[in-house]
Amino acid sequence: MNSLRPPLSSQVEFGDAFLRGMEAAHAIGSPQQFFVWLRLHIHRFVPHELALCRMDGGRGMRRTRMLNCVPLPEALKLSLADPDAPVWRRLLELWERGDERALQIPLAQLEAPGNRREGDTAQPLFAGLGEAGFRSLRVHALHTGLSRGGPELLFAFVSQQPASEACMADALTALELWVPYLHFAWMRAEGGAQLASRRQPVGEGSALSARELQVLSAVRDSHANAQIGELLGISPLTVKNHLRSIQRKLGARNRAHAVAEAMARRLIA
């Protein structure tokens, strides 16, 4: 007999992955570790190539984090990094109109001329995301009590993949479950930001060559080995060897860990 309930093995796997993500959140101590945590744990539940986070601490103390796994135009990055950009007000408005629950919005819907309102300057940013290859975004926010008025912490996960109805429902359910841990992880990352920047002075102990820094920067921009080789004029095998050397020198377990470690040491931006 067919059943809509997933097999027990899938349920166990889901639960184990969720517990691993919860446990890993307690080890976060820097924005770079927050980035790795999103990619290694949250991405499985809420697929994304771009994560946007905005905190309003009250009294005009607003800050943002933009964690992109694909290259973005510089103008778009600057606009999204502005905590007072109109895109943030628009996302909060949409979230509030959705009964303050996690929601998914097709970017095509936000870009449509019929949705343009007088004075709405957020639409060009949504159009820019569409031009960069993104198709949908998922939004959730929460009240933390840090400021009066609207929600203080907002997360937007932007994806290049159009999701099916079933995948959309699963991702939104997961986002509802994860938002308290997202808040917890964000606060740990922000609280440890200054400590992370002091872990190692610029240049100290850096045995990375100029070529290795080029390779690592390309990895940070989510290029595959073949793409990196083409960009730098070297073979994919040479890129692989550089990455092995980089991981050994930084004590990193994998590519993402190497990028996070290099960013924490301020070897790459």
Automatic annotation (TrEMBL):
<keyword id="KW-0238">DNA-binding</keyword>
<dbReference type="InterPro" id="IPR036388">
    <property type="entry name" value="WH-like_DNA-bd_sf"/>
</dbReference>
<protein>
    <recommendedName>
        <fullName>HTH luxR-type domain-containing protein</fullName>
    </recommendedName>
</protein>
<dbReference type="Pfam" id="PF00196">
    <property type="entry name" value="GerE"/>
</dbReference>
<dbReference type="InterPro" id="IPR016032">
    <property type="entry name" value="Sig_transdc_resp-reg_C-effctor"/>
</dbReference>
<dbReference type="InterPro" id="IPR000792">
    <property type="entry name" value="Tscrpt_reg_LuxR_C"/>
</dbReference>
<keyword id="KW-0804">Transcription</keyword>
<feature type="domain" description="HTH luxR-type">
    <location>
        <begin position="201"/>
        <end position="266"/>
    </location>
</feature>
<keyword id="KW-0805">Transcription regulation</keyword>
